[in-house]
Amino acid sequence: MSALDSRNIDTPDETRPFKDHGHMDIVTIGDFTLGKGTFEPGWRWSEDVKPIAGTESCQARHTGICISGRMTVRMDDGTEAAVGPGDVMVIEPGHDAWVDGDEACIMYDTGVAAYAKQH
């Protein structure tokens, strides 16, 4: 990698489909990975990604921003929070999440190097 490198998220290095209800577009530059998640209405981690991840709850640490739509995140301890447009987030491992409403939730996330990746 040179001292300056850039790629456009609209031409991702890979696209990881969820079981249903969306996908994650991935761009990796050196050791930096960014994902653009499109979580369609009806998406729920425990239904759409759990079969891919093979864990009881999401074990990724997410850091990013919500661009559109809304999502609720429930931690394994029962704590819940909703994120919406403009919300910057840090979500630690050990959670489920789902799209609220009938608008797709679009998020940019740096915690996706192994997220929704077939093993």
UniProtKB/TrEMBL annotation:
It comes from the Bacteria. InterPro entries: RmlC-like_jellyroll, RmlC_Cupin_sf. It comes from Microlunatus soli. Gene3D superfamilies: Jelly Rolls. The lineage of its organism: Bacteria, Bacillati, Actinomycetota, Actinomycetes, Propionibacteriales. Residues 1-22 are annotated as: Disordered. This is Cupin domain-containing protein. Residues 7-22 have a biased composition (Basic and acidic residues).
